[in-house]
Amino acid sequence: MSAGTFDDIPVAERPIRAWPGLAILAAIPLLMFVPGLLVPRTMVHFISFFAAPILGSIAILVWWSIAARGRGLERWLFPLLILIPTAALTATIFAPSPMTVPVYLLPIVTGAGMLGVAITSHSAPETRRITLVSTLIVGWTFVGLLRFDGADGDLLPRFRWCWQPTEEELFLAERPAPSGAAEGAAVAIQPGDWPGFRGPNRDGRQTGESIDADWAANPPQLVWKHRIGPGWGSFAVADGKLFTQEQRGAAEAVVCYAADTGQELWEHRQTTRFEEAMGGAGPRATPTIRDGRVYAQGATGKLLCLDAATGHPHWVADVNADADGVTPQWGFSSSPLVIEGVVVVYAGGPSGKGTAAFAADTGKLAWSAGKAAHSYSSAHPANFGGIRQILMLSDYGLESFNPRDGRLLWEYPLLEKGMNRVVQPAIVGDTDLVFGTGVGGNQGLRRLRIAKKGEAWDVQLVWASRALKPYFNDAVVHDGHVFGFDDSRFCCVELANGREVWKEGEYGHGQVLLLADQGLLLVQAVNGKVLLVKAASEFDELASFPALKGKTWNHPVIAHGMLYVRNGQEAACYRLKKPD
Predict the structure, then answer these.
(1) How do the domains of the chain map onto residue ranges?
(2) Of 120, 228, 262, 475, whose Cβ has the fewest other Cβ atoms within 10 Å?
(3) What is the pTM of this model?
(4) Taking CA 392 as the corner, what is the angle to CA 373 and CA 344, rounded to the nearest 5 degrees?
(5) For the segment 422-438, what is each residue's pLDDT rounded down to a tens digit?
(6) Three-state SS across 388-405?
(7) CA-based max dimension of the chain
(8) 179 exposed, middle or buried (CB, 10 Å; 0-12, 13-18, 19+)?
């Protein structure tokens, strides 16, 4: 008796052709991660990472519906049991982070379904249907028990079980009741204070300060540590007080703590909440202290001026409503710059309204100017040609404005549409600056030379280098070198030509602070560890200790011999030298 052929098998009894679906499933992680290894932080990287799981899952459903040999109800069960729960969970449980399900979780469930299909591909149709439905139910049940807790700088997600409270919920439950209205003398900036984002000059440089660098003999001593509301800004330090911003439930809060004890002195709440998938909830900027007042910008564009001693509001402005601003994808991150009687922030408004200035005393819009349409950088002070000016780095490039009226002084166009420019330019002497060109195709550093010739400005490129490619991590300049993060690795390049000197530290996407008098770099690693590295042409990691737990993107602060660090869940103070 001769063997039968495939065509002799009834259509309803033919096995499922599983291998194309398994091949598509295997291609999803390859397309998500391989481009990131080859061309990190480019549009290709980001598009492939987010598109691969969505398009791959769609491809599997199309294949199943057309070419997998499923029949009748079996043919439609797979698509229905994928698409309906995806839409339902995205609209409900994962609504604050709508990309979570299609990007991170859908491949898990689709993979579970494909595993069931592969195992039962030669089984009877009824067995295949039962197995398919069971595996998808198990997959969606597992996914429904998860809650998204943000992603790291490499876009890798963090999850918790649904019954586990968030760090913010733990903080709100444990936080002591406010002590009442704060009182006290006007806050005045003292020598050695750190009155705003990256210090007095916004350059991450502390002078007049020395620490005990022998951490083996005299390790940093914990003074206080406690939970804190989520947020990615840093501390401002003035007159014995710490100022920062946090998310506290439905409100963004500007908070004042006692620097020596960590005790909360006052808070000012503004009912608004910003939350997105990568960074989670909370403000992104650092407050600025000036003339006894606190200036702070929230993630949704609320700009506040408060009394630094009491938290009493002087005025509240809205960058979106008052300056035609547009909230960026990851929230407003511009730390206010107070200069020449105005408060300058990124706005991103159309038709020449990329940068906005508000009157420091009243909060009224003073001027708006510039072509910035996308930026997470902050206004930066500079003085070239004896002219005080403001620099703004954005997708358009680098622009310089007169702080009094917003008049454009000079510009260096370097258009990078849709990509992120985050870091601050570094001023080098009276004529030059170094800036990170962003995370797109023009990754790396550029050094510019700016000269005033009569009424005109001359801007020349000195060098361009890809040896140090900052992501959202600022760099510092010291003794002829630039120190910063080449993506996730710590790096040193020559200031004269941009050539790499060394690339050693695996610190993740952290931040760095320079102790100029001692030639030391205090590095805040992304995992919460703090390290001491010599600011020298040879890499030398001197010491380290675990300062915080959890993802840490916030800039560290050193003032008066104390180290102040925070992230989205806790804050701490460490003594770095023995008391006098």
Answers:
(1) 6-161, 167-575
(2) 262
(3) 0.92
(4) 95
(5) 999 999 999 999 999 87
(6) EEEEEEECCEEEEECCCC
(7) 104
(8) exposed
The least confident of 152-156, 194-198, 370-374, 401-405 is 152-156
Instruction: For tokens 């020598």, name the residue.
Output: 191
Q: What are the beta bridge partners of residue 318? A: 302
Q: Which two tokens stand for residue 491?
A: 């790096």
Contact assessment for residue 174 and residue 227, using Cβ atoms and an 8 Å cutoff: yes
**DSSP string spanning 56-82?**
HHHHHHHHHHHHS---THHHHHHHHHH
Question: How far is the C-alpha of 312 from the C-alpha of 267, rounded, in Å?
Answer: 9
Q: In terms of DSSP bridges, do strands 432-436 and 380-384 run parallel, antiparallel, or are they unpaired?
A: unpaired
pLDDT of residue 12 exceeding 80: no
What is 167-575's CATH topology?
Answer: Methylamine Dehydrogenase; Chain H (2.130.10)
Q: How far is CA 475 from CA 6, 24, 419, 524, in A?
A: 66, 42, 19, 12
3-state secondary structure 487-539: CCEEEEEECCCCCEEEEEEECCCCEEEEECCCCEEEEECCCCEEEEEECCCCC
- Strand 387-394 relative to strand 397-401: parallel, antiparallel, unpaired? antiparallel
The average confidence (pLDDT) of the chain is: 91
- Please name which of 81, 148, 75, 76 lies closest in space to residue 109, comparing C-alpha atoms: 81
**Cα 27 from Cα 540, distance rounded (Å):** 42
Pairwise pLDDT comparison (272 vs 577), residue with the higher score:
272
pLDDT in tens, 160-172: 999 999 999 999 9
Integer Cα distance of 130 and 111 in angstroms = 16
Measured between alpha carbons, how far is 249 from 154 in angstroms, rounded to an integer? 27
- The number of beta carbons lying within 10 Å of the beta carbon of residue 157 is 17
- Supply the pLDDT for residue 2: 45
Greater pLDDT, 79 or 392: 392
Do residues 209 and 192 make contact, with C-beta atoms less than 8 angstroms apart? Answer: yes
Phi, psi of 230 (to 5 degrees): -60, 145
Q: State the pLDDT confidence band at 440, using cuts at 50, 70 and 90.
A: low
| Confidence at residue 115, expressed as pLDDT on a 0 to 100 scale | 86
**Of 381, 372, 388, 460, nearest in space to 422 by CA:** 372
pLDDT-derived band of residue 350, with 50, 70 and 90 as boundaries?
A: very high
- Quote the percentage of the chain above a pLDDT of 70: 95
Q: Give 62's contacts (C-beta < 8 A, 6+ positions apart).
A: none
Inter-residue contact 340 to 403 (CB < 8 Å): yes
Backbone angles phi, psi at 29, to 5 degrees: -65, -30
Nearest C-alpha neighbor of 408 from the set 397, 420, 421, 416: 397
